[in-house]
Batch of 2 targets.
Target 1
Amino acid sequence: MAKHTVLKQYFGHTDFRPGQEELIDGILAGRDALGIMPTGGGKSLCYQIPALLLPGLTLVISPLISLMKDQVTALNGVGIPAAFLNSSLDSDGFRQVCREIRQGMHKLIYVAPERLGNEGFLALMQEQNVALVAVDEAHCISQWGQDFRPSYLKITAFVDQLPRRPVLSAFTATATAEVQEDILQRLALRDPVKVVTGFDRPNLFFDVRHPKKKDDLLLALVEERREKSGIVYCATRAGVEKVCDLLNRRGILATRYHAGLAEEERRQNQDDFQFDRKAVMVATNAFGMGIDKSNVGFVIHYNMPKSLEAYYQEAGRAGRDGEAADCILLYGPGDVSTAKFFIQQAGEENEALSPLEVAQIQARDYRRLEAMVDYCKSTACLRGHILDYFGQAHGPTCGNCGPCRGQFVRQDITRQAQMILSCVKRVRDRLGYFVGAGLISKVLRGSRDRRLMQLGLDTLSTYGLLKGTTAGELGHYFAALEAEGYLFTELEHSTLRLTPKAGEVLFRGAQVTMTRRAEPEAAISAPAAAQPVEDSLMAALKATRWKLAQGEGVPLYVIFSNATLADMARRRPRTMEDFLEVSGVGQVKAEKYGRAFLQTLADHRAGEEE
Ligand code: ADP
Ligand code: MG
């Protein structure tokens, strides 16, 4: 069978996504592979299709137990023999799967990395013909990454003990060069085919809001999206509790997830969300890696994360089905101090590292945080900002983010800019070091603050130049000057610094304009795309899916994704042959569910003709 046949017959797709074919071809030709694609890019197929075509067994190493179960359910659902071995199985279940492996029943086996150190498991694999090892979420092998897992370091030792070296492949959505290099080295990939696809996710709408009251805006945003499933990320456990209560009091079906909950409750809540019993998951960043829920319609960050990598990964959990989805960040100045606190704390807690290493890691974390804050303050295309960060080229505007869609007021602030920048310069010249924005603001507004007086800053020529301007207003000017690249907040010591570009304003008369979003506090952001009122056919198809999912006890998307239902509603197939044309419908699913959906479509036609 050829790879295209497998794609169509099992997975119901007609075309490969960017990068998939190259990786699959490489693996089939016996080469190691490294696939770097965004979340939702389709990495799983890159090892699942070779697994079917290669003689022997494919071992998939994946960090999360819940994810394995869902992937295996999904594979079995399209007729592919696969199983997992992990701590969620009881001893009978475990022996059963081992027996099935010995009988050669499976094409794919999912295991957690911890398992690789187990003697029994090694012995079992030594008896098998392991053709391919696929390392999913491969960034877990890197200490530079967000989610380092020491057990990932066992992979090479394990592979070395197999009688024949299998093809080794690794997949991740993490883009940074450091992490890529780490993966190559630590897995000892041999001359791999390496595919890095674009990082853009065109169906995601990005926005940053600066609300006075986060709770009000959050409620408005979630209520607007009542039909959808979504995730709200908070920085702390206490935040999760508070926000989850807030939503529940408003009658929104929300559940929660954080490391402080008992294992049992976490699993229950995750299931409630996964199975669409609860529409909204409120969680800390402990929730998410490897979640495979394709119909997440929005991801709202109640607090700013600590880096753009983390943000893009979390926000990227929206819209994996390719449907329009919203990623909205609610920024508040307090978020910066929370993030700084986490950076400090992480350094202090990590006893395995030397003081020098701690300092290096903290310095790097501060740079990342600064980039995150830049994003929050940006008034230009947000998608462009993200792609710049990952080093990918892009057009000037994307048309699908807050700034690209928003209404802006522009104001000339050249005069204020000159005063502010020269004040920062004078203070620096006087003291020999940069100070924070708070002190600069006080100098400009002519405050009688004690520290200011002690330092003698009231004798500067810029003292009191902007008397009568409120601290809030000055904050807007600072933010605008940062967005334009004249000022820069260095977070480790909380200082406001001049950039070399400031010279253009100070010495060469450059004009400065401030771009401010026209956003009345209560106004509700434009949703990603005009949301079509869901028509009755789509509702009927969803109802049928719901019934089938209940019957089988599987999540909705294991039956069909929203994208598949949407294509079905568009094509309105009448025969089984037409039904197979629907994107996402393969042979096995057509046989299992075709009749039910064709019936729903027929009922709908009859209703229309009446
Ligand atoms: P990743 O692991 O890269 O985050 P997945 O492998 O989970 O992404 O795939 C995300 C979604 O994309 C799944 O719903 C999958 O069915 C779909 N998908 C993958 N490849 C294709 C393809 N070639 N055509 C259409 N849909 C695809
Ligand atoms: Mg994946």
Target 2
Amino acid sequence: MRDHIHHIGQGIARREDAVLVAGMGRYADDIQLRDPLYVSFLRSLVPCGEILNVETDDALVADGVAAVHGGADVTHLGPLAVNPLIPISVQTGFPVLAQAQVQAVGQPVAAVLANSAARAQDAAELIFADIVDQPIAEPQTVAEQSWSAGDGAAAMGQADHIVDCTIRHPRLAPSPLEPRAIAVAYHGDSDTVTVWHSTQTPHRTRSALADILGVDAARIRVIAPHVGGAFGMKASLYPEEVFSVWAAFHHKRDMKWTASRSEEFLSATQGRGVTSKGRLGLRSDGVFLALQAEVEGPVGKWLPNSALTTAWNAARILPSGYNISNLDISTRAVAHNLAPTGIYRGAGRPEANCLIERLVDKAAVVTGLDPLEIRRRNLVASTDLPYRTGTGNLLDSGDYARALTLLEEKAGYAAALRDRDARRSRGELVGLGIGFYLEPSGSGWETAQVTLNADGSVLVASGSSSQGHGRETAFAQIAADVLGVAMGQITVICGDTETCPEGIGALASRSTAIGGSAVMLACEEIKARQDKRETAPMSADIRYENKGEAWGYGAYMVVLSVDRETGVPTIEQAVAVDDTGRIINPVLVAGQVQGGFAQGLGEAMMEQVIYDGDGQLLTGSFMDYALPRASDMPHLAQHTFETPSPMNALGAKGVGEAGTIGAPAAILNAAIDALRPLGVEDLQMPLTSQALWHAIHAAEEGTT
Ligand code: SMO
């Protein structure tokens, strides 16, 4: 890098916010089309059944209706590609509209196209679908994988202690502020479409649409306009979206579809839902000998592109940053007659982290060691990095013990323990929880095209994408430093398949580490050509591939008290320490950690999608599904340090999911610590006041 570095590392205000905060953002639903048709779906009311007949006569003659379609009209639409992160043994279909069968409540069965959204919805209610109920299918394993290293059974046999734990993660509704939305403009002169899609992955949208519809990708332009949150839920294409684009080509008309909040609860991908069981064997001095675990991740009856990521990450990340040479770990993805599941902020990382951090805390209890001390004794030493785990992860860089030491200092750990003990002796229920975590940021490639114009202005076009998380600001900072120009001279664009180079998108905490590295290298090429006296205008195209995953990590501490009479939990102190590698903008890092912590708190304390035994969704609205509010957030004390990753040109590590990974483990450990004096050894999330009240009463009645 050059001498005049003065943007990278600075807490520069987000350039996106002037528009977004003033309500001037342009989201997919804001796109004005010429005389579009609006799409509304009739959805299955039953989780499993055979379709005998779909009667559409009344809907067809309803006010404003242009067409009604059933499954027979879209039988030819191809499958959706699934990322085979773990080997797939059973192929599932991707019915855009249900064919002979329905497989989940909320599955689209028929679609109405009308000249207003309200008319389309009214007409959809006039369709009668004659469906014969069938019993819900037995859960079916569709993909599985296992890892072994050393000799897990023999090492368990030598252990002085074996602790075990089962964690059942609640299913979560990702709930971005902006629901799924798509607007399709049909261009009759060229038989092409422009698709505004609320997505994290516009290039994937285009290639997947081309494959599924059987049209040349050149006939599809995808634009991700402002995206009001995504969290993994918008990384894959949905049947409703494919249908809308198919309908635009078929009817040669503009189309629009925006999901209602109810449709999101019913038919958007849900997250977590993983059940994991683990056993940790250790010596009496606290040294870990062996880890054995079984992970089961639910999937729906159709698999989004990233359907297997959660089950994969929840297992392969399980050894975390601990030195455990003997392990047996297996994972399975299991299909149910429920809504599809997919990645959700953290995507298996929080699941892995909760299990291992619970086991480590239990190991501390059984050995009588301090929770920080037992972690210190087992974390991989900085001198042993890079380190390959028994599951094949290459942990790249850092100083894991330093995260614990910083946490100990910054959180006032010793004083917090003394305070907890004093309050305990007075009969208060108060606990202190620690959570170490690892966060792999994604691997692979990303692109950038940087143009230096004759007037000195710079256009940065990234193949990555933005969902309101500050990419435009961070990429401008990188370009400003490399090129030695002012931020105001730099325009950053992304999320348009026509004006931006082909790319991957915004997911897996990869945008800065990989997308930012691509921007940096493209700018460096421009700078080098300038130095050789080449003059503007000039343009550099970079496809950058990282050397492997950059592993961010950190340590979180939570102090949590529980009201003995009501079970109401209160987080009294929350401290985050994160090593995010090279920091481009500390304001963005702080925002990511804070937002992630809020989502982790939601999982740990309140959120839960509930189905009854018949596959009917009981939590179909925000009246039944508790999303955290601002007032539920405690003050979060945030601390960072930086050890650059050698795996990418910038040295950055992902931080987009850090808080979601670190928070649940620390909160869960704190809650169990709070109730430990009563004899409570395990709790399941969400830690609602009801759940805690029952745990307190069961303990007091001696029934735990
Ligand atoms: S759950 Mo993320 O968008 O990889």
